[in-house]
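Table S2 (text version). Query chain:
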Amino acid sequence: MSEVAFFTEYWRPFLFIINLIYLVTAIIVSISVIMDNRNPTKTISWIIILFLLPFIGLIIYFMVGQNYRKQKIFTRKGVEDFKRIQNLSERQLIEIASDDFIEDENIRNKLHIIKLLLKNNKALLTRKNKATILNNGKQIFRSITSALNQAKDHIHIEFYIIEDDRIGNEIKDILIKKALEGVKVRLIYDDVGSWRLSARFIDSLRRAGVEVYPFMPVKFPFLANRLNYRSHRKIIIIDGKTGYVGGVNIADRYAYGDSKVKFWRDTHLRIEGEAVSTLQAVFLIDWHFVCGKLLDENRYFPKTDVRKTNLVQIISSGPDSDWASIMQAFFSAISTARNYIYITVPYFIPNESILTALKTVSLSGIDVRMILPAKSDSKLAYYGTMSYVEELLEAGINVYLYKKGFVHSKLVMVDDIFSSVGTANMDIRSFDDNFEVNALIYDQNTTSELKDCFFDDLAECEKLTLEDYKRRPLSRKFLESVARLFSPLL
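Corresponding structure-token output:
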């Protein structure tokens, strides 16, 4: 018997046992996935992965596939909601039943959304606010750096991506300067999103007195528990009076483009007023999670001197919440629209509920328009997004591809009175896996301004037609189908 034949014969029983163990494990995991009662597409995708990629599929599942909202692993990230927010939300639910709580009839038509978010997210409806729309990186960063330089008491920052580049260092230098002046500066960065952030960058902040913590650092053997659940939030709070939220991360490409995309189209929101306190609560709960310190002194929740009435709800969601709050807000706003729905989003990989709602309202005669990217920073996300275009067009939804650069704004406008600006994409990852935060605005002027921006962006778009899109190459259809299968997982 040759050495090869002997080796094969000798190892055959062991290989059989290993394969049998894997098969049994894969079947058990598949049953667990099925019993989770997830989105059917996601369930089928995981089962295919498990059996199509032996061993590798199992590793990927334990790294990014487990349903932590179902398992309640995070449970509000180790801290109950601030009692002040809980008590106020319960009181507001009682007050909102009064006919004179909201006098504007247009806003009253969206009262069901407000009530929903009070119940599923304790998202307070705040009245005295000034909301300023900021478009594209250069304008956004000018506003942010100016506000940071004026900080007197504290600066709180949480971002998915912070890079060690021109803009990253400009903001770092401001934070160091303010910390040396005695301002309390606290910074949270996502450990996966900011994986290229150097130790030198972080150390220079800490030496100046800035408190810096990563969100869920990924270090073996904790990799399996943490890789898939990331803080995608972009939050800045200055002195408890001024807040920022939106799509831009701290990186040069958002202002100057990069080698692949020369122009990044994005939208951010500057808020002054009562809504900053609820944005502050989101940050401080995350702060407790990353370092175990609970900060709830009155200094972080100062009274506002804003007198302008602009109704805003700050809504957060993630695997620490019992409900997919942002997804439910989108679903409620879409399914009850009366006149129009305008959406701009870079990644459109919806669950069945959102997809059905959009198609249903369009078939009912509601004007539905969507701006999607003609080019993207992710091929998987791009082809996954494009896999939905044909059925959107069949339902009468107007789909436009943004050609000037990469559109990264995450905007929803409904009926001239409701709008959303924030970090959440209209995709399964944002709905289920990421920690996200959005500002929902019930105001005609703000929605009108966003609507004007939307129509300005349409001038840079190509409108798709069903006839032309059906003629795309078979190879393109195949890529879309494969991406659609795997995009919910990653």
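Notes on Table S2: Residues 379 and 483 are 9 Å apart (CA to CA). The two ends are 48 Å apart (CA to CA).
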